[in-house]
Amino acid sequence: MAAPFKYNIQIIQGATLRDVTTWKVGNTVKVAVDLTGCAARMHVRSKIADAVPLLTLTTENGGIVLGGAAGTITIFMSAVATAAIDWKSGVYDLEIVFTNGDVRRLLAGA
User: Fold this and answer.
1) Rounded distance between C-alpha atoms, residue 73 and residue 66, angstroms
2) CA 51 to CA 7: how far, in whole Å?
3) Is the pLDDT of residue 1 over 70?
4) In whole angstroms, how far apart are CA 43 and each of 26, 49, 75, 95, 98?
5) pLDDT tens-digit profile of 3-12?
6) Number of alpha carbons in the 13 Å side-chain half-sphere of residue 23
7) What is the mean pLDDT of residues 32-60?
8) Rounded to whole angstroms, how far apart are CA atoms 12 and 25?
9) Total-model pTM
10) DSSP string, 20-51
11) pLDDT tens, 67-105?
12) Contact 65, 41 (CB under 8 A)
């Protein structure tokens, strides 16, 4: 399994966060990964080893929206939600859960 892509995200307190990325694979021709039926979860922690996350975003709670065959992954937080953040920095990982139960840690960063 490949290591997660390093991708840093900046959350501006009091501003809407809408960060869209597309997962593509291939050597010469890049093709979007079909995320139809998949779920996603993202945990932000002070330190990677911390058991309790500062923030959890998922497809279930609306914090992550997957774009099906287009391969897009949208991380979303409303301005109200970002205004409530009371921590300065953190580290995160984002995992994709496929319909067969396989989990791929796709992104990680600060």
Assistant:
1) 5
2) 22
3) no
4) 28, 12, 12, 9, 18
5) 999 999 999 9
6) 23
7) 97
8) 30
9) 0.93
10) EEE-EE-SSS-EE---TT-EEEEEEESSTT-S
11) 999 999 999 999 999 999 999 999 999 999 999 999 999
12) no
Q: How many CA atoms lie within 13 A of 71 on its CB side?
A: 11
Residue type, 3: A
Structure tokens at 23: 């997962």
Both structure tokens of 48 = 């990677």
Q: Provide the CB-side half-sphere exposure for 82 (13 A, CA).
A: 17
Instruction: Give the Cα separation of 93 and 109 in Å (integer).
Output: 7
Amino acid at 11: I
Query: What is residue 84's three-state secondary structure?
Result: coil
pLDDT band at 2 (very low <50, low <70, confident <90, very high): confident
